[in-house]
Amino acid sequence: MGGTVIDNGRPADAVTGHWVDRLAPRSWRPYLRLARIDRPIGWWLLLLPCWWSAALAAIKADQPFPDPWHCLLFLIGAVAMRGAGSTYNDIADRDLDAQVERTRLRPLPSGQVRPRHAALFLVVQALIGLTVLLQFNGDAILIGLCSLLPVAIYPFMKRVMPLPQAVLGLAFAWGALMGWAAVFARLDPPALLLYAGALCWVIGYDTIYAVQDIEDDEIAGIRSSARLFGRSVRPAVGICYALATILIALAARGAGAGFVGYLGVAAFAAHLAWQTLSLRDRDGRGALALFRSNRDAGLILFVGLAVDAVLRGLS
């Protein structure tokens, strides 16, 4: 089932031996945990669609590689905005989190951080994200600001809709638009197809993540895709991943990707197929490992697209 909480309030899905627990001053640790710094998978999953989009834009623009400055900005922005989003989500969900084993010792429901202090911390992280966003062109800035809408409404969707992962996907897939807009100052069909594919990917991997909490969510009345799909969770994840692969392949085609780009898409698809076949109903520990493996899946796709851009630049 969901992860149990271990030493010093550190949840079981945190990385063992992370520097937050070893090196950070004790007074900082609740805030670093509030921003999920001890769980880097979240910012990886926010970052990877940005990098996919940057690589796809490089292919379309005949650039020899994805813009390194853009990729660095996306990295900083992903860490800051993932932290801000997690802090906002925890402020909104602190009462629900107290009812779920995996989340009841998070900094807010456990009383390690007061809500007003969490709100101030949220503002600081959001300002860092805004500073990063302002480095891009005006169209990219406007598109980035629009991402705040799904971020704002997501924490409340698990109370009213059976598939809140779709709203989460709208937010976490947003980077698929940003890399393209940062290069072309507009959105074209390949970026929109990539966004749709990333959305399906997010719904798939977050359904896997939600398997950890099915029993507690049922007790607390929290809605999730894992509860919605029930015993059909594996085929549902498979459908999401298949749609993600098809849409991303179409995006690669629209951008003019070559053989190596498609090879990256194929390897990405193979990784997603392995996840689907490995998923077991109500196996929380296994679900967490599969969820985390999406960093590797996303990096495989990015490498394929980026190498494709490099090879096109050399030809």
Automatic annotation (TrEMBL):
Molecular function GO labels: 4-hydroxybenzoate polyprenyltransferase activity
Pathway: Cofactor biosynthesis; ubiquinone biosynthesis
Reaction(s) catalysed by this chain's protein: all-trans-octaprenyl diphosphate + 4-hydroxybenzoate = 4-hydroxy-3-(all-trans-octaprenyl)benzoate + diphosphate
EC number, as in UniProt: 2.5.1.39
Chief location bin: membrane
Pfam annotation, one family: UbiA
Recorded superkingdom: Bacteria
Entries under InterPro entries matching the protein: HB_polyprenyltransferase-like, Prenyltransferase, UbiA_prenyltransferase, UbiA_prenylTrfase_CS, UbiA_sf
Compartments where found: Cell inner membrane; Membrane
Spans traversing the lipid bilayer: 41-59, 118-134, 166-185, 191-211, 232-253, 259-277, 297-314
Keywords: Cell inner membrane, Cell membrane, Magnesium, Membrane, Transferase, Transmembrane, Transmembrane helix, Ubiquinone biosynthesis
Cofactor: Mg(2+)
Membrane topology: Multi-pass membrane protein
Function: Catalyzes the prenylation of para-hydroxybenzoate (PHB) with an all-trans polyprenyl group. Mediates the second step in the final reaction sequence of ubiquinone-8 (UQ-8) biosynthesis, which is the condensation of the polyisoprenoid side chain with PHB, generating the first membrane-bound Q intermediate 3-octaprenyl-4-hydroxybenzoate.
Family: Belongs to the UbiA prenyltransferase family.
Protein name (Swiss-Prot/TrEMBL): 4-hydroxybenzoate octaprenyltransferase
Organism per entry: Methylobacterium longum
